[in-house]
Specification:
Keywords: ATP-binding, Cytoplasm, Kinase, Nucleotide-binding, Transferase. The protein is α/β, with parallel strands linked by helices. The protein has helices spanning about 15-30, 35-50, 90-100, 100-120, 130, 145-160, 165-180, 205-220, and strands at about 5-10, 30-35, 65-70, 75, 80, 120-125, 140-145, 195-200. The protein has a single domain (about 5-215), classed as P-loop containing nucleotide triphosphate hydrolases (Rossmann fold, 3-Layer(aba) Sandwich), CATH 3.40.50.300. The structure holds cytidine-5'-diphosphate (2 copies).
């Protein structure tokens, strides 16, 4: 059987990973895997259970927790849909702690590798190129200035009719980036062989077109 193709997309919050990855997957007819949604889903369950999220011993529940990403990008925890709920500020502000827990990472990374073994994938996250799929066919590291990233989130909220404070969003992003890039296990880091793209001044279409050209060149070599 031919080996499945995998595209890894990493970068900090608001760099455009999920928007771009979804569009790439559509054009390439690959499956899109949002690994951040998986960490958010576990965080949702941890908060529902009311555990002390810093306590490593409280995570036995993940052995009998099921996480499903559907083809139309809905997220289910134990068969219950949480697609909207996992985007809340409460989840965003707790997810970096939950994702630093060893048992959580082990379970989700194994799930992610399994999916990539069976499908052509575009997978986005923090440690895809460095840890989950070190042999990915193409690796991207998307980045943008913190002001641009905070503004994007702010605009996203406005469009949804959610009132928010730009400075607060910016501080939350800075804190999450710090926690994600300084944690001990699989921190956010550009893989040595990843192609870095600064999306600050690029439209979504410009980024997609740029990445498609690179993918076609690399994969068809
Ligand atoms: O969309 P956004 O950039 O805000 O975040 P996300 O991709 O939904 O990821 C949420 C959080 O999950 C990140 O801040 C990380 O703490 C964690 N995460 C991770 O540790 N490893 C990954 N491969 C993906 C996400
Ligand atoms: O997944 P990640 O947190 O990296 O970012 P995202 O959720 O895909 O993108 C955050 C916001 O930025 C979305 O509302 C996108 O529409 C927007 N965006 C943009 O305006 N220009 C880009 N080049 C990429 C994303």
């Amino acid at each position: 059987m031919e080996k499945n193709i995998s595209i890894a997309v990493d970068g900090p919050a608001g760099a455009g990973k999920s928007t771009i990855s979804k569009l790439l997957a559509k054009q390439l007819e690959f499956i899109y895997i949002d690994t951040g949604a998986m960490y958010r889903a576990i965080t949702y369950k941890a908060l529902k259970l009311g555990i002390d999220t810093q306590d490593e011993t409280m995570y036995e529940f993940i052995d009998d927790t099921s996480i499903t990403l559907t083809k139309d990008n809905r997220v289910l925890v134990d068969e219950h849909e949480v697609t909207e709920e996992i985007r809340s500020t409460e989840i965003s502000n707790n997810v970096s702690i939950v994702s630093s827990i060893k048992t959580v990472r082990e379970k989700l990374v194994s799930l992610q590798r399994n999916i990539a073994e069976k499908n052509h994938v575009v997978m986005d996250g923090r440690d895809i190129g460095t840890n989950v799929l070190p042999n990915a066919d193409v690796k991207f590291y998307l980045n943008a200035s913190v002001d641009v990233r905070a503004k994007r989130r702010y605009l996203e909220n406005s469009k949804k009719g959610i009132e928010s404070n730009f400075e607060q969003i910016k501080q939350d992003i800075i804190k999450r980036d710090y926690l994600d890039s300084t944690r001990e296990l699989n921190p956010l880091r550009k893989a040595d062989d990843a192609i870095e793209v600064d999306t600050s001044a690029l439209s979504i279409d410009e980024v997609v077109n740029k990445l498609i050209v690179i993918i076609k060149r690399k994969v068809e070599q």
